[in-house]
Amino acid sequence: MMNLKSMTIPELTALFKEMGQPAFRAKQVYMWLHRGVRDYGEMTNLPGALRAQLAQSHPICAPAVVRKQESQKDGTIKYLWRLSDGNCVETVLMRYHYGNTVCISTEVGCRMGCAFCASTLGGLVRRLEPFEMLDQVLFTQVDSGLPISHIVLMGIGEPLDNFDNVMRFLELVNSPEGMNISMRHISLSTCGLVPKIDELAERKLQLTLSVSLHAPSDEIRDTIMPVNKAYPTEELLAACRRYYGATNRRISFEYAMIHGVNDRPEDARLLLKRLKGLPAHMNLIPLNHVEESPLKPSTRKAVMEFQTILEQGGVPATVRRTLGGDIDASCGQLRRKYTKEERKE
Ligand code: SAH
Question: What is the position in ligand 1's atom list of the atom closest to the CA of 210?
Answer without folding.
Answer: 8
